[in-house]
Every structure is written in structure tokens, then in C-alpha cells.
Specification:
alpha/beta, Rossmann fold, 6 domains, 5-stranded parallel β-sheet, 12% strand, globular, NERD domain-containing protein, P-loop_NTPase, NERD
């Protein structure tokens, strides 16, 4: 330290055998005289263990040295039974400091416990204001014992280095100040009434039995320095290992809370105190790289990262993080955490690949993460392809990682226009779907011929990795893939792998090449492909080898669910043009045709597929020109396309090409032909409408709506009708995002549009654009003449107008004005659409505020009106929170009511609701149960009755049914004696599911009585497992799946019962029925797939044989394969 003098031996004072040294800084002139005195004397009661006290002491010493006055600092000592972090005594002030190293946001006032927020939720911690107040009073009492004084010290809570963002803390008062390090200079300058002389300070130190420190560093614990060195060694090793991986991340945009952010913003979220983050997205798209990048970045924010892989979690979390810590120079994970906390550093846990954790361990892993986060105030970052099991346990913000764009794929591949003058590599990049494949393109794309397939990409990569052992290695890899497919499993034992290698006479050198290639991975004694795409590629190689030129063999493989993930690779591996053309001519697989058109199966397949699309679009145009309409009845659907004017063979061709056509539209192709077909269809509509020119206006308007509805909305007999409907309904299922030329092609199409059908077609496509250049002037023109267009066209224009909020001024204001001008002119339904569109622009904010007094009056009216009128008013009021132009205002006012008024309003609403209008009823019942008032039981009980089988909202009806049973159980209220007529097996099974929900939630009764109730429901469901029980489980469980696993379903609560039911259901698939009479076609298949899903989640190895028997069935094959893979992963079982 500058100007620090250690006192000579004669200057050393001794009390009670303890040595007290003085820090003395004196500036001397050349004659040796002291011109200025600046002595800061340090005393400690015990070694300083925490970084926050360390930082406070340094800041205080720096401030005192600068001030140039004598001072005494007492650190980490006890006085009158109270531990005190730091006391500073000068000639003008006495200050007591309570040092804190908060890293998470917190909330606190002068009274009561303080609350800290983390990924685990909230927890209560000590009130630092009160701690500082107690400390200053204890110091005063200690001083008072030895000398008469007046006044009190001042006190401060100092958070180092600052108070965490997002905190809400009291600033303190004249007794205690709450602040951070930057406040220390001001606090030391503030005088207090209680002041001691230097001699009194010396005497006080003696009475408190404090040790004097020679230097500032000597005052600080040596353990801290040892901890700092150990921590730095770990961080250096962490950076050395993970930084190269993080450096591979190519910056991309990610979705977060409806916003787009880049990687630096994701990293900065952690630096700004975000407690938890879920990095979510599909396989091979950079989640692991982003996770590693965030882990490296957090080191600069004074955090200590721990990065582990979920696939290595086997039930013991400490062993998992211990293994990682030891590999990076730490003694143990516990030691690393302990030293990090002593240094005031935040622990950041990064868990990569949550979806790769065994299914039976996932809930336990989530619980462990919560406990870890809570115990150590640790941040949590998780990457996963799926949502977390019981994700309600952790408070995580979600960053969505999408499939790579064309620009990102080029950046990943590190391909420049100069290096790829022929454009062949970029064409290949356009065909691949993931970051993994883009990386392969960068490594081996230059070695491939123009127009290579995705299969050729993986084959070339394998050959380059295998080197001189390529031929032998690929033969073994295809044998491994063939064996896995044949046995319907996903890995082999090392023993089986050795036998395969021996059968292929793979020598030791080739075996070494294969091992080093990392195309396979070993976990324990099991060997599997390193990535599912490598499995798919070598499965394709195995199929081609076994087919030996047999067309039927290839077609059978392409049609088999066993090869669903490999079919694009299989077709890409076909190099005989004759076979290629024959397969394309005979296949009805629309996914395969779309992949071909996109270039995934090679140039020849792409050219052929696009020729097929060209012919289909030309035929579509010709068909549209000759379409005729006819009146077929009254009311809705009274107009239909005349079947004689259709081209029957076109429909079959168009059906299988529809996804491929849709994807090509997103690539900016065929818009001109589609627009022309819409124009021809509009001419046919005009011809039909001209025949009714003399009819009354009301009839003409009705017919105008009906013919448009038939042509573009519902009929779907003509090819152009089918295409437009698919675009608007969202069923097209685009394989990838819009291409680079889509926005410009769409903008050009808007400039040429003239007829309603053309506008309607473009309105649907406009939802797919990322461009801010919305056709706002066209939208305004359409809005101003909206009255002249058909009903469905009106709704679509209004809906699309909401997207124009991104437009620049004055277009944005023009759209708002046009929307407002239509209010009240086109009927109540259109009016509601107008309100929602205006709300998207924020144009209703003033109206919402003005409507608040009306809402308050409605609330008072509903609460004070007795009888059915008040109850119906309360229900209507409750629904307006979710379905009203001012729904947010209704929500805020109702949620702002005190508990008593809220409970009364909700109870009335529950009594006022009547079937079939049951939307939001499940939410209401759940909210009523939260009041924990058994007197609400009779109000809820009527919703435990069986729902109407003809309900127009079956899922809402089931939700109300289940919530009512759970609510009565939690409230400890008896179920009604009768809950509906038991007319069939589905009635009995559904009631039994309700009873299981009820008894599961009724925890306040005798265990034996509860067990009897559960056993009766169990028995009932097993009795009807042959037909109705699986369907009942599906109905009562699907809402939980939709809720992202936030709540426990019957399947999770009763896994053995669920598995038993689903095993029976799968053996008697054709007998399965559902509760609702109007279920759509395919319900039996839906129940079967649900049963497979249950076995995947909670089944065991005994279910594998049953599932294997389903693998070749079109309806169930893909689901069964996924289930087998899950069970194998979960049970750590691999057949040999």
C-alpha cells in the first residue's frame, strides 16, 4: 500500500498477551518531521470469511486513507452477544456496517422478513435493516459499559457491489441507511453525536479483546486468498475446455417473450440477474453451443459456471457435478460451491440436453434442480428439445431456438460466394434442415457433385472420417443400422458389435478408424449412433444394399413406419434414374414429394418433382377457368361447385403434391399461377352471380357470401379451393420457413392483385412473411370498401389488418382510421374482430380507461343483485376477463377486488353459468377451490355431473368435470349421490376417472376410507378397460399434456393402473370408444396412440413386444418406435 509504515517495535502496544499493530501512513519532509497524519488502525475479532465483508473493509480503508484523518476499524467481532461485521470510529462519526453479498433480487422493508427471488420461487431471509439496527445498539451498549456517552452510532446495510436489479428495498431512515459500496464515502462524512477519542477507541478494542492487523491484507482471511486461487484455477480450466465449443456458436436470432434477441442479449440476461433460463428448440440447431457460450460469458459477471450433461444423470446429482468439477481442477463440487460462496460469487448451473435424461429420472432431476437453486441461490440454465417434467417447480424464462435460416446455415458452413462460384454448395445448404447438417456441408460440401442429396452429404462425411477404412466401415455401420431396425431397438451391446465387426472381417486398423470417426458412441456397454441423423443415413444404406435394385423392396421400405425418419435418406440414396422415376410416379407420400421438390433427395428427384408440380398447377389453372356453381339448398352451404366441372384425376395428384406446392409458394414460386387460378375462379363466381342480378339485395348479398364460402372456405373440391383453404387453415404444415425470395415475390403479387379471391389468397400467405413491408395501402383500400365483400373475406381482411401495426406512418394511422370507421356497421361478429384488431394497435387504451367506471358499476351490480339475475350477471362479468374488447381492464379490476368480494363474485358466477356455455368454467372452479372454503362445495358440486355428450366444447366440459372433482376433494366435501345417468360403459369409465381425481385430492380423511374409494374406482376402470377406460383416461389427461406438465395427471399418479388399462386397449384397439357422441373420425386411432404414449412414459421392458407388433401399422408405427426408444432409455435396457 502506498505510504504505509509498519510501526517500530517500541510503538507496538500489548494487551492481554495479544499484539496490536497500527497501519500508519505519514508523509515526511526531508528533515524527517511529520507534516500530516493519516492513521487507520484495523482490529479483527475473527478471520473475515465472506467477500462482502472483504469488499466493505477495502472500501472503508480507501475512503479513510483519502480523507487523511485518524480512524479505527473493528471487523467481524462480537459485542454484547451480537456479531458485528464492521464498525468505523473517527473523530466525527461512529458507523456500524452490516455487509451483504446479495446476488438475487429481493424485497424488504423495515419490518418483517425480507424475501429473495430465485429460480426456485421465493424464500424468506433475515431482515438486514433490523440486523444493522441491533448491531448498532449492541455496540452502543458495549461502549456504555466502559464510559458515559450520549447519542447513538449510525448504521448501514451495504450490499456489495450493488443492490441486485429488480430489488425493492427500503432506503432506510435516520437510524439505518440501506445502500451499496458507492454510499460509503457519504456515510463516513456524516457526523454522529456519539464520538470517541482515539484513546477511548484503543481502550474499547482492548475490552473487546480484538486483534490488531499489521496490514489490510493481514486483516483479511488467508482462506479467502486460498479460495480465490482455487476458484481461478477452476475457471481457467473451465474456460480452456468449454471456450472452443462456445466459439463455434454462429450468432442467430432467438425468440424471447414475442421478441427477437441475439446471442449477446441471451448472455446479458444472465449477467443482469435472470434467475433461470430454458433454451428450447429442435435437435441439431445450436442449443448446446448457446448454452456453452452463456456459461463462458457468465464468468465475466463474477459467477462460477458448472456445466453438466443430463444424459449422464443416473439419479445421484452430487456424483454428476462432482465428476465434472474434479475434471476441471476442483477438489470436489462441494468444495467448489463453498469457496465460490465465500468469495461472493454466484453459482450458475448449466444443464445441457434435459431431453436426453432417462424419462423415469426427469421429475427427480427437476426437483433436484429446484433444491440446488434454493440451497445455493444458484442460477439455472437448461437446454432441451422438450418441456421440463413438472416445470412448475422452476421459474424459468424461455428462449426459443429455431431451425437455422439460409443465412445462418451458410455462416455455419463458412461458405463464401467466392469459394462456391458454381453455387452447388449453397444449393445443398438449401436442402438441409439443421445446424449439424450445415456444419457437414461446410466440411465436405466441396467434395460433392452438383445437386447431391442429404444422404450423399452424410455418406461423404463418413467416408472422409473413415479414410482408408471407408468401404469396410460403411459396411459395418449399415449392418448396425439394419440390426437395430430389424430388432426395433436403438443400441447394441459391445459384444454384439464385436460380432458384427468380426462377421465383416473388420481388421484392427479399420476398427480404430471406425472408433476415431465418432460416428458411433458408447455409453456403458451399449453402442449407438452418435446422432439420429447418422442412424437414418446408414439405415438408408442398409435398405439400398438389401433391395439390390428391387423396386417393390424400396417402395415397401418407404411405406413402412419403421423407416419414417429414414425415407428421405432412402430415396436420396437411389441413384438409378429409372427406379427414381418409378418411385415418384407410384408414391403417395406427400412429405417425400415435398422433400424432393426442395432438393433434399438430389437434383434428379428435385427436377422430376417440380415438373409434377408444374403440370399440377397448369391443370389447376385450367380447372379453375371451367368451374361452375349450383344451388343445392337453403341456408348455409346452399351453393356448391358443380361436380361435372371438376377434373377428377387432378384431385388425386393435387392431394399428394399439396405440401410440396405450399413449400414452393414459400420459396416465392408459383404465385403467378395460383393468382391466375384465383382470378379465373373469381370470373366463374361473377358469372354465377350475374344470374341473380334481378334478385332483392338481401338475397344477392347472401348468395355472394355463399358462393365465396363454397369456392374458397369449405367446399375444397377444386384444386385451387383446396390450396387456398390449406393456406388459411394452417393445415399445410410447411416443412421450413419462407425462402429468401418470398417477401419480394409476395410484394410483387400484392401489386398485381385485382379480384377478391386473389386478395384472399394473398392475405393467407402474408401471415408467413417476416417483412415489415405490409401492404398497408391495399389493406386500407379494402377496409374502406369492406361492406361490398363476402363475410369470410371481411373477417380475413380485418384479421390481417392487425399485422399492419408494423407498418410505417402514415399507413399505420390510416389502417386505424379505416378500422374505427367500420365500427357498428357490419354486425356484432365483425364488430368483435374490429375491436381485437384495434386493440393490437393499442388504439383502445383510452377507451379501456374510460370503461373502468362501467366495469366497477357492473361488479357492484352483480354483487348486490340477488337471485338468478345477479348470478347470470356475475358469470357474464367473469367471462369478460377473457372474451371482451376490454378484457384486460376487466381482469385487472376483478383481480384487484379484496378476497371476500372476489369469492362472492366467483361463487355467483359459478351458479350463474349453464351448459353448454362452459368455456372458462374449469379456471373458475379451480379459483374457487383456492379459497379453501368448504361452504363453496354445493356451488361446485353440480359440475361433477357427467358432461353433455353433444357438447360443442367437449374439452372445456371435461375440464370443468375434472376440476370440480378435484375441488370437492381438496375442500373435503362429499361427492353428490347422483352424478348422471349411467347408460353405457363410457359413462361408468368417465365417472370412475372423476372419482380417482376426487379421492386423490381428498387428503383430510381416514386413510382406509380414501383407499377404499380409490380401489373401487381402480376396479371399475379395469373392468371396462376392453372398451372405454383408455378413452376416459385420454379425455381427463389430455388437458395436462396441453398444460406442459405443470400439474399431475392420473397417468402420473396411478402409473400401474394406467399401464394395465393401456395394455388391454392396445390388444383390443378396434373396440375402443370415446365419451362424446360427435367425436371426429379417427378417435379409435387417437385412443390407441394415447395408449402407446402412456406405455412410453410409464411402461417397462415387458411392453416392448406389444409395441413391436405395432411398428408396421400405418396408424401406430411411428408412435410405437418412439415409445420403444423411450422405454429403452428409461429402463437402461437394450436387447441383445
Amino acid at each position: 500500500m502506498k505510504n504505509v509504515r509498519i510501526l517500530q517495535e517500541s510503538e507496538v502496544l500489548s494487551f492481554s498477551g495479544q499484539v496490536f499493530l497500527v497501519l500508519d501512513t505519514r508523509s515526511k519532509d526531508m528533515s524527517g518531521g511529520v507534516t500530516d497524519t493519516n492513521e487507520v488502525r484495523l482490529f479483527v475479532g475473527a478471520p473475515i470469511q465472506y467477500q462482502s465483508e472483504h469488499d466493505c473493509l477495502r472500501a472503508v480503508v480507501d475512503a479513510l486513507t483519502t480523507a487523511g484523518k485518524w480512524a479505527y476499524c473493528f471487523a467481524n467481532f462480537h459485542a454484547c452477544g451480537r456479531q458485528i461485521d464492521l464498525a468505523v470510529l473517527t473523530e466525527n462519526t461512529t458507523l456500524v456496517i452490516e455487509a451483504k453479498g446479495y446476488r438475487l433480487p429481493l424485497q424488504g422493508d423495515k419490518n418483517g422478513m425480507w424475501v429473495q427471488r430465485g429460480p426456485y420461487g421465493e424464500r424468506k431471509i433475515g431482515n438486514a435493516y433490523q440486523q444493522a439496527l441491533d448491531a448498532k445498539n449492541a455496540l452502543r451498549d458495549a461502549i456504555q459499559r466502559h464510559c458515559h456517552i450520549s447519542g447513538y452510532p449510525h448504521a448501514a446495510v451495504i450490499s456489495t457491489p450493488t443492490i441486485p436489479d429488480g430489488s425493492t428495498l427500503t432506503p432506510g431512515d435516520f437510524k439505518v441507511t440501506v445502500g451499496c459500496l458507492t454510499d460509503i464515502v457519504r456515510l463516513l462524512a456524516a457526523p454522529t453525536e456519539l464520538c470517541l477519542t482515539a484513546d477511548a477507541c484503543e481502550h474499547l478494542a482492548k475490552q473487546l479483546n480484538l486483534d490488531r492487523a499489521i496490514t489490510l491484507d493481514a486483516a483479511l482471511s488467508q482462506d479467502i486468498f486460498a479460495a480465490q486461487n482455487a476458484c481461478n484455477a477452476y475457471l481457467c480450466a473451465f474456460n480452456e475446455f468449454h471456450a472452443p465449443v462456445a466459439a463455434k456458436l454462429v450468432d442467430d436470432s432467438y425468440k424471447y417473450d414475442a421478441h427477437e434477441i441475439d446471442a449477446s442479449q441471451v448472455r446479458s440476461m444472465l449477467g443482469m440477474g435472470t434467475q433461470g433460463l430454458l433454451i428450447h428448440g429442435p435437435a441439431g440447431c445450436g442449443k448446446s453451443l448457446l448454452t456453452a457460450s452463456c456459461a463462458i460469458a457468465c464468468i465475466a459477471t463474477d459467477s462460477v459456471p458448472i456445466l453438466v450433461s443430463a444424459k449422464d444423470f443416473e439419479g445421484e446429482f452430487l456424483r454428476l457435478i462432482d465428476r465434472e468439477a474434479v475434471l476441471l481442477n476442483a477438489r470436489s463440487a462441494n468444495r467448489l460451491i463453498a469457496i465460490s460462496r465465500s468469495l461472493g460469487k454466484r453459482i450458475m448451473l448449466f444443464l445441457d440436453g434435459y431431453n436426453e435424461c432417462r424419462d423415469d429420472l426427469k421429475i427427480n432431476l427437476t426437483r433436484i434442480l429446484k433444491v440446488f437453486s434454493r440451497r445455493y441461490n444458484a442460477g439455472i440454465v437448461i437446454s432441451s428439445q422438450q418441456n421440463l417434467a413438472r416445470n412448475d417447480l422452476l421459474s424459468l424464462r424461455t428462449v426459443e431456438v429455431a431451425r437455422p435460416t439460409e443465412a445462418l446455415k451458410a455462416a455455419i458452413a463458412v461458405i463464401s460466394a467466392h469459394e462456391d462460384r458454381s453455387g452447388s454448395v449453397r444449393r445443398l445448404l438449401g436442402a438441409v434442415n439443421s445446424g449439424l447438417e450445415a456444419s457437414l456441408v461446410g466440411q465436405v460440401g466441396a467434395f460433392l457433385t452438383v445437386g447431391a442429396s442429404r444422404f450423399a452429404l452424410f455418406d461423404m462425411y463418413a467416408r472422409r472420417k473413415l479414410g482408408v477404412a471407408a468401404a469396410q466401415g460403411i459396411r459395418v455401420l449399415s449392418d448396425v443400422a439394419a440390426t437395430l431396425v430389424e430388432r426395433t431397438c436403438f443400441s447394441l451391446s459391445v459384444r454384439e458389435f464385436d460380432r458384427l465387426c468380426d462377421a465383416e472381417q473388420l481388421d484392427d486398423k479399420a476398427r480404430q478408424h471406425l472408433t476415431r470417426s465418432r460416428l458411433l458412441q458408447m455409453r456403458g456397454d451399449r453402442i449407438s449412433f452418435a446422432h439420429e441423423l447418422f442412424f437414418a443415413a446408414f439405415t438408408a444404406e442398409a435398405v439400398i444394399r438389401s433391395a439390390d435394385g428391387n423396386l417393390d423392396h424400396i417402395l415397401a421400405a418407404l411405406a413402412s413406419p419403421r423407416f419414417f425418419l429414414s425415407k428421405v435418406f432412402i430415396f436420396g440414396a437411389v441413384e438409378d434414374d429409372r427406379m427414381l422415376y418409378a418411385v415418384l410416379d407410384r408414391t403417395a407420400d406427400y412429405d417425400l414429394l415435398a422433400a424432393c421438390a426442395n432438393g433434399e433427395c438430389g437434383l434428379a428427384a428435385q427436377s422430376t418433382a417440380r415438373q409434377m408440380i408444374d403440370r399440377a398447377m397448369q391443370d389447376t389453372l385450367a380447372e379453375a377457368a371451367g368451374l361452375r356453381f349450383q344451388i343445392v339448398g337453403e341456408g348455409w352451404n346452399s351453393v356448391s361447385i358443380d361436380g361435372e366441372s371438376l377434373r377428377p384425376r387432378l384431385k388425386e395428384t393435387f392431394d399428394r403434391l399439396l405440401p410440396a406446392i405450399g413449400q414452393q409458394l414459400l420459396n416465392g414460386k408459383y404465385l403467378d399461377l395460383a393468382m391466375a387460378a384465383c382470378g379465373k375462379l373469381d370470373e366463374s363466381i361473377a358469372t354465377f352471380s350475374a344470374g341473380f342480378a334481378e334478385e332483392p339485395k338481401a338475397k344477392r348479398v347472401k348468395l355472394q357470401t355463399e358462393v365465396f364460402h363454397s369456392a374458397y372456405v369449405m367446399d375444397r373440391k377444386a384444386a385451387i379451393s383446396q390450396l387456398v383453404y390449406a393456406i388459411h387453415s394452417g393445415i399445410l404444415g410447411f416443412r421450413r420457413e419462407a425462402g429468401a425470395s418470398f417477401d419480394s415475390a409476395l410484394e410483387d403479387a400484392w401489386s398485381r392483385a385485382e379480384s377478391p379471391g386473389q386478395y384472399y389468397f394473398l392475405l393467407g400467405l402474408t401471415r408467413c412473411t417476416s417483412s415489415d413491408k405490409m401492404p398497408a395501402p391495399v389493406i386500407v383500400r379494402l377496409l374502406k370498401n369492406l361492406w361490398a365483400y363476402p363475410y369470410h373475406f371481411q373477417l380475413e381482411v380485418i384479421d390481417c389488418a392487425g399485422y399492419a401495426q408494423r407498418s410505417e406512418e402514415p399507413h399505420r394511422t390510416d389502417v386505424i382510421d379505416a378500422l374505427q370507421a367500420l365500427l357498428g356497421k357490419l354486425g356484432p361478429v365483425v364488430n368483435s374482430f374490429l375491436f381485437h384488431a384495434l386493440d393490437a394497435f393499442g388504439a383502445l387504451n383510452d377507451d379501456k380507461q374510460n370503461h373502468i367506471p362501467t366495469i366497477q358499476h357492473e361488479i357492484n351490480n352483480a354483487l348486490t343483485t340477488e337471485g338468478s339475475d345477479g348470478e347470470e350477471a356475475a358469470w357474464a362479468l367473469y367471462c369478460r376477463q377473457f372474451d371482451h374488447p376490454f378484457d384486460t381492464a376487466y381482469w385487472e379490476e376483478i383481480q384487484g377486488l379484496d378476497e371476500a368480494r372476489q369469492k362472492a363474485l366467483f361463487a355467483k358466477a359459478c351458479r350463474g353459468a349453464e351448459a353448454p356455455h362452459v368455456s372458462f368454467m374449469g379456471i373458475l372452479i379451480r379459483r374457487l377451490a383456492e379459497f379453501n372454503d368448504p361452504q363453496l362445495g354445493p356451488t361446485i358440486a353440480r359440475w361433477t355431473h357427467l358432461p353433455d355428450k353433444r357438447s360443442v366444447m367437449p374439452q372445456d366440459a371435461i375440464q370443468a368435470f375434472v376440476e370440480a372433482h378435484q375441488a370437492l376433494g381438496r375442500l373435503d366435501v362429499e361427492l353428490p349421490q347422483s352424478r348422471g345417468e349411467l347408460e353405457s360403459a363410457v359413462d361408468i369409465a368417465l365417472l370412475a376417472c372423476g372419482e380417482l381425481e376426487y379421492w386423490s385430492c381428498r387428503q383430510l380423511i381416514d386413510t382406509a376410507q380414501r383407499s377404499r374409494g380409490i380401489d373401487i374406482a381402480h376396479g371399475t376402470l379395469l373392468d371396462y378397460a376392453c372398451s372405454a377406460s383408455a378413452g376416459a383416461l385420454l379425455l381427463t389427461t389430455s388437458r395436462y399434456f396441453a398444460d406442459d406438465g405443470n400439474r399431475v395427471s392420473l397417468v402420473q399418479r396411478y402409473p400401474e393402473l394406467s399401464v394395465a388399462i393401456c395394455r388391454v386397449a392396445l390388444t383390443r384397439r378396434d373396440e375402443q370408444v370415446s365419451y362424446f357422441a360427435h367425436e371426429r373420425p379417427g378417435t379409435t386411432e387417437s385412443i390407441g396412440r394415447f395408449a402407446i404414449q402412456v406405455l412410453a412414459e410409464v411402461g417397462d421392458i415387458s411392453d416392448l413386444q406389444l409395441l413391436r407388433g405395432l411398428c408396421d401399422l400405418e396408424s401406430y408405427g411411428t408412435s410405437a418406435l418412439r415409445a420403444i426408444e423411450k422405454i429403452e432409455e428409461r429402463m437402461s435396457y437394450r436387447p441383445t
